[in-house]
Amino acid sequence: MFDPSVKSIILIAVFVYLIATLAHSLYFYRGVKTADDYNVAGRSIPTFPMILSIIGTATGGASLLGWMADAYSSGLGMLWLVFPIYIVTIIWIVFFLKPIRNLGTKFNLVTIPDYISLRYGEKARIPALLCILVAYAAITGLQFIAIATFLNLMFGLNTTTGIIIGCIFLTFKTYIGGLKAVIWSDSVQGTIQTLGIIILFVTVYFLSGGWGTVKENAMAINQPQLVDLFGIPTASIFVFIFTLGAYQFVRQDNWQRVWAAKTDKVAANSNWFAIGIGVVASVFIVLTGVFTNLGLSIKTEQPALIFYQVVSETMPTPMVVLMVIAVLATIVSCADSFFIAGASSIANDIIKPYLKVTDQKKMLHYSRLSVVILAAIALLLALTIPQLVPLWIAGTAMLTSGLLIPVIAGMLFKGISEKAGTLSIWAGLITTVVWQIAGQPFGIHQVFPGLLASALTIVAATLVTKPQNTALIEEMSYNNNLGSSDLLYEETLLNEKASSKNA
């Protein structure tokens, strides 16, 4: 695909990029003093890096390469991979960002299971943790495979060696710097990937002759569905809405970034700006796939590699190198964010509650250890399960089915009892797993029976049980967490200083 001279230049560029990325993480190593610094970036990140970190996490290697490949094969309807994500994210920002930030500040939350256990009791932490770990371990392993695929395509490295290299690199990078280094490095990588996506789309658009030519070519080959926004089955659109879309409500990395923001304004503005840039970049990815097929008439037997092929055939060497680095930046910026999110749950939802660790410095040590533990789990998955993408899809379905309804209901309704919330998580989780093992009876995606079971259980259990800790539930309720978390944070700091003086 790339001739040897170009590959040599790419090899040098990749080496320099990887060394620079590790050096950037090392720069933050000494600044990470506590577990809070490590897991939620000391709650101090400003707007610009936060914007690009959100974009970098939202658009991963699977999105860039996968969405483009899907659009190349299936056409414009693949925009429904994009729309649900951003529509649901807008709802999440408008109605839930502020209470999530307030709850995180008020109760010093680090993970979604932290919130779940506070609202529904410690018995609810375990099923919530299972939902988080399966999804995040699978997607972390998927990023190891993405790096291995990249190294195999570029340099002929065998997949197993590539997976191990990807694991070592991402583990070391995440281990030393934590979320603070992840967010600041993502600000660089997010810039590279966004520019790369825009440059590639503009290049393909003009070389293809524009939308008119693309539409004419689709009609000429008698495939009008390729340029029809609704050219995919309606059932697929609903699956995207309730998986990729609904998943945005309970993405732990999203919650952690809200808590990591320096101020309320930073948390809100960075998410709004990220949506604007992210939706443009995501739409450009899909359109690039459509225009490549119908405008450039580039043919391939491996749609998954269409990105590399179109770059190779349309761009000069310097731009090829930039595009390849953009792909690598996309993979790394997504991978380290999911990595730290999953590792945070091991530290905060297993080690901290069960070993009764309260010291921040000890928790920092355990947080770094958790990165290694998650790396081992993800590496095992990547090496032993060839169908890691279906595992990740099943994991996100478990995450959505298990946590979506209890999380939202717990905020909005004070009458939801602790037992109702806990049973609802188990019901959604178990139903999703059983439905998947049964082979998706009647062709129904597992997320639908999972959500239905979760909803019916929480309603039924609420009718026969009553909340126990009513004072805490009142304090955690939606209406009581719409104020300024900045003022709340300042009050907390003043109280801590006063306590330390008295001590």
TrEMBL record:
GO CC, any one term? plasma membrane
Localization per record: Membrane
Q: Which InterPro entries match?
A: Na/Glc_symporter_sf (IPR038377), Na/solute_symporter (IPR001734), Sodium:Solute_Symporter (IPR050277)
Q: Which Gene Ontology molecular function entries are recorded, alphabetically?
A: transmembrane transporter activity
Q: Where are the transmembrane segments?
A: 6-29, 50-69, 75-97, 128-151, 163-183, 195-214, 226-250, 271-298, 318-346, 366-385, 391-413, 420-438, 444-464
Q: Which domain of life is it from?
A: Bacteria
Give membrane topology per the record: Multi-pass membrane protein
Q: Which PROSITE patterns match?
A: NA_SOLUT_SYMP_3
Q: Which UniProt keywords apply?
A: Membrane, Transmembrane, Transmembrane helix, Transport
One Pfam family name from the record? SSF
Q: Which Gene3D superfamilies match?
A: Sodium/glucose cotransporter
Q: Tell whether Transport is among the UniProt keywords.
A: yes
Q: Which family does it belong to?
A: Belongs to the sodium:solute symporter (SSF) (TC 2.A.21) family.
Return the PANTHER family for the record. SODIUM-SOLUTE SYMPORTER-RELATED, SODIUM/PROLINE SYMPORTER-RELATED
Q: What is this protein called?
A: Sodium/solute symporter
Its source organism is: Peribacillus simplex
